[in-house]
Write a structure and sequence with these properties.
alpha/beta, 15 helices, single chain, about 425 residues, elongated
Length: about 425
Amino acid sequence: MKLAAIVTIGDEILIGQVLDTNSRNLAIALEEMGIHVNRMLSIGDRADEIANTLSRELACNDIVITTGGLGPTKDDITKGVLARLTGSKGLVRHPGQLEKVHSILKNRGLDILPINLAQADVPDTAEVLVNRLGTAPIMIFRNVKGGGTLYALPGVPHEAVGAIPDVLEDIRKHQQLSSILHRNLMVYGIAESALSELIAPWEDALPEQMHLAYLPNPLTGIRLRLSCYGGDSNLQKQLMEAEMGKLKVLLRDWVYADGDSTLESELGRILKEHGLTVSAAESCTGGEIAHLFTSVPGSSAYFLGSVTSYAISVKEKVLGVPAQIIEKYGVVSSEVAAAMAEGVRKLTGSDYSVSTTGLAGPGGDEFNPEGTVWVGVATPKGTKTIKYCYKNDRLRNIERFAASALNFLRLQIVSEI
């Protein structure tokens, strides 16, 4: 299996001023084509650090990809380091990149300065892939000091992403690749530790070439990614299908999607497939559930609307929650969650509805501590509620409340259709 390292260059990354998304995008692309990312590193704009890091990574990886440090300003020193590292005798002006520099600056209405033209200068040891989105060239250095192949990409995220297809095409031409097969299973409603314990015997018995990764997210639950490395692709698919079948049996209703998906997308698929509609009444989630529903293209086919009833007066006057229920049980209660769900279902005429009332924080009491939410789901067959308690910060609690509400809604719908 081919190994790769990704090295992002720039002080702005190390001080947290810029978020490194380039490494993530490159890693995803490389893994999908059968190249295992061995390391991801971020280093500053220091010549010795760049040279030492690249020398080390080229010695133990087939492919090293850098991003950053190729701009026109004095702090962009990567090109000079690469020239020295690869034994370049000097810089040459690449005609294709020079033409792109002229075109980009002209289209932007900018003056063409010598510093801009120098962007097209590359070490004579480099092969060049023209950067279609920017002025900095994409450079390739092969067999650097008898080691691997080095790709130098610009650091601007949309330029780096735009360069990925060309880089992958070059890799395919010059590397013999083994296959990697990935399959995702989406799980919600079970803690990662409990999940790990439940499936431990299955995981321990996996074939040697298979590996399981746990990828938790507060909005989507746990993505279980099963990977199969090397070997015949048909055999990979057979092994994957067999092991996924065993895993689904173990996890039962905790599985909400076979494949990389989200709760809102899976709910939308179910509702659309059965011609059903849904609405929401939110208090502590403040519209997060509505946002998740409407983030899915085509959600107008099943999502009718929502009421963000943050104030008690809105719960009473718009949703029709009886004042005596609030007075007797409190706003954060099973009874209020049920009344909210029933009220919005009646108001919108939807088949199903979901509600939330809780305390995202800060604040709480002995009966309803911070992180408490009651979720209600009203259906054609009745209304059910459930209580969840989380211990996160306010924003994370809101995300967990909304995701848990969607999952509870999903379970009720699936049980009835």
